[in-house]
Amino acid sequence: MVKDKEFYTFLKNRLKITPRHLRLYELAFLHKSASLTMPDGSVVNNERLEYLGDAIIDAIVADFLFRTFPGEREGFLTRMRSKIVNRQHLDAIANRMGLAEAVVSFATSRDAKKKRISGEALEAMMGAMYLDRGYEKTCKYFTGHILNNFIDLQKLLQTETDFKSRFLEWGQKNKLQVEFVTISEKIEKSKNTPQFIVQATISGVPISKGSGKSKKEAEQQAAQRALTFITTSAESSVDALIQYLERMGEKKKNG
Fold this sequence. Notes:
The chain has two domains: 2-157, Ribonuclease iii, N-terminal Endonuclease Domain, Chain A (Orthogonal Bundle); 163-253, Double Stranded RNA Binding Domain. It is built from eleven helices and five strands. It has helices spanning 2-14, 22-28, 47-68, 74-85, 87-97, 111-133, 135-150, 153-157, 163-173, 215-232, 238-253; strands at 36-37, 43-44, 178-188, 193-202, 205-212. The protein has a three-stranded antiparallel beta sheet with strand order 3-4-5. It has a two-stranded antiparallel ribbon with strand order 1-2. It starts with a helix and ends with a helix.
């Protein structure tokens, strides 16, 4: 009873949420490392709510950007959405909101892992709110409270986080085929999480690799490293880079 009251107060006073079904929000803050096993053998944690919340946030942000920037094209809107909903940005928002205080977790205390756990709790919390109050109330909360108080749109307009789009645009501009190839997809038994390894290629020549718990995350990392290679390479021009790629392609073909 005391813990329920404390958690309710945290939601209402700190996060400005008045829950109808408190248990949904409690579940949203239950990390998989602290999973509960029910009498029927089912395992309970916030992963399903995180999945739902991720989709809800995507929809809310897409709608918000569509209305906020009526004159912008699809590419701009896609890049802006990526900047808002990317893993690192959501982690930072969740930590500024103080979500870490309420997360129940037995995970190790490394800073990076703690930040990610908070971001995952934010997604799960939005999933819980959607089930508790519906889409309209959830949209109003995310745009009115989170977007207004914790997201600096002007700053995001000046930063670039969608490396995949930049890499693809670079390929189109220079008439070079750029691709992402998944070379590994497995479940890490110790963490029970998926791990993807993706390779970025230019004209079929491997340039860089990226890894992450989602294919999207791995592709972004691979693209960022590919762009770094392009801009810092000793090759001084695109023509020279093409010649380099051709040499690498021949070398690969000849074994």
